[in-house]
Amino acid sequence: MKILITGGAGFIGSHVVRLFVTKYPNYQIFNLDKLTYAGNLQNLTDIEDAPNYTFIKGDITDQEYINGLFQEHQFDAVMHLAAESHVDRSITDPMAFVRTNVNGTCNLLHAAKELWKSDFTDKVFYHISTDEVYGSLGEEGMFTEETKYDPRSPYSASKASSDHFVRAYYHTYGLPVKVSNCSNNYGPNHFPEKLIPLALNNIKNNKPVPVYGKGENIRDWLYVIDHARAIDDVFHKGKEGDTYNIGGVNEWRNIDLIHLLCDIMDQKLDREPGTSRKLITFVTDRAGHDLRYAIDSSKIMNELGWKPSVTFEEGLEKTVDWYLQNEEWLQNVTSGSYQEYYNEQYAR
Ligand code: NAD
Ligand code: DAU
């Protein structure tokens, strides 16, 4: 089977590519990635020479190129992860999110339909999406697969739009699609513009740790390798046309999570207890900041037998160790345009 994985040089995509290349030697895995600021082939050096792996540098927003690529390689399946993924960037540059997340997804859907239209048997178009499409929760309740869409940031609106297009291709053309909506991931290869890696990097370098607003917003954190395992399950066992919610059953208020990270780093770096907490700096809140996300994962657990393999303590331990041991990776990704962006944002 020839599988096209988009966005495989990014955070989650790199773990999915590694899992599929190593677990399924009979599959041919093609990783299509534009290598934006968020794409990094250093994430995949351990598998780059595998005989069943091919990297293709390319842009999903280029419709003609995408059509040609599908005709050339005759893919049997698509796992679509390429996206602009950072909410703060969507506030400063929403059009980039429309181009990649909406137009890019539509280009892939169109190319898959055209290639497979004479016979959809055994084909899969699997779209990887986010819990943010459901909007923001109050203190109670959880997102289920039936929760009404209510996206509130340009990022979540672009992902919601792409989800709708995927389902429209299922209902209109019969394209064999699957969708999953996942909560916040954390783990190795996470770009340090996102909360956990940003905090770890700043604590390590004795820089301020920015907490938006009062730090009362709540996120449900899942170890990235458990998300990759869930993607494997949905790809192989998920029902055509269905949606699966994936979450960690692991809600944390941002400020409590930051305190925990500071305390772990104090221990790891042999600092006096309480030293890193002094770096916490409350900054202007994110515009339209969603208060709380929480995912009800009972469908994927009951129907596909998936459950997280590590506790939050274990996952964080692995994550902190990875960031402390991968100084060169951090230095590479924190140079250049990201640094400029971060300085601009943090100056708010
Ligand atoms: P990421 O930003 O780390 O990686 C995105 C990848 O897509 C990068 O490698 C980038 O180079 C590539 N890309 C961007 N634009 C492209 C284009 N036009 N053409 C080809 N490649 C392009 O993102 P991530 O955090 O790994 O997220 C992957 C997917 O999972 C996204 O669709 C995201 O919406 C979804 N998701 C993420 C999370 C999370 O917590 N990070 C949670 C749920 C869902
Ligand atoms: O829920 C899934 C989503 O999780 C994914 O779809 C997105 O791609 C991913 O980026 C993530 O979105 P969030 O906005 O929740 O993640 P982020 O790490 O940017 O922020 C987590 C929380 O921390 C959020 O409430 C904002 C807050 N925050 C973030 C940063 C970067 C801070 O307080 N300070 C910061 O410096």
Commentary on this structure:
The structure is a single chain. With 348 residues, this protein is an alpha/beta fold. The protein has a domain at 2-185 and 223-249 and 294-310: Rossmann fold (3-Layer(aba) Sandwich), CATH 3.40.50. Helices cover 43% and strands 16% of the residues. It has twelve helices and twelve strands. The protein has helices at residues 11-23, 63-73, 87-92, 94-116, 154-173, 195-204, 224-237, 254-268, 298-304, 312-325, 327-333, 337-346, and strands spanning 2-6, 28-33, 53-57, 77-80, 124-130, 177-182, 184-186, 209-212, 218-223, 243-246, 251-253, 280-283. It has a seven-stranded parallel sheet, sandwiched between helices. Helix 1 (11-23) links the parallel strand 1 and strand 2 (28-33). Helix 2 packs parallel to helix 4 (94-116). The mean pLDDT is 96. The chain binds nicotinamide-adenine-dinucleotide (NAD) and 2'deoxy-thymidine-5'-diphospho-alpha-D-glucose (DAU). Nicotinamide-adenine-dinucleotide is lined by residues 6-7, 9-13, 33-36, 38-39, 59-61, 81-85, 100, 104, 128, 130, 159, 182, 184-185, 191. Nicotinamide-adenine-dinucleotide (NAD) binds at residues 6-7, 9-13, 33-36, 38-39, 59-61, 81-85, 100, 104, 128, 130, 159, 182, 184-185, 191. It catalyses: dTDP-alpha-D-glucose = dTDP-4-dehydro-6-deoxy-alpha-D-glucose + H2O. Belongs to the NAD(P)-dependent epimerase/dehydratase family. dTDP-glucose dehydratase subfamily. Residues 4-319 form the NAD(P)-binding domain. Its cofactor is NAD(+). Keywords: Lyase, NAD.
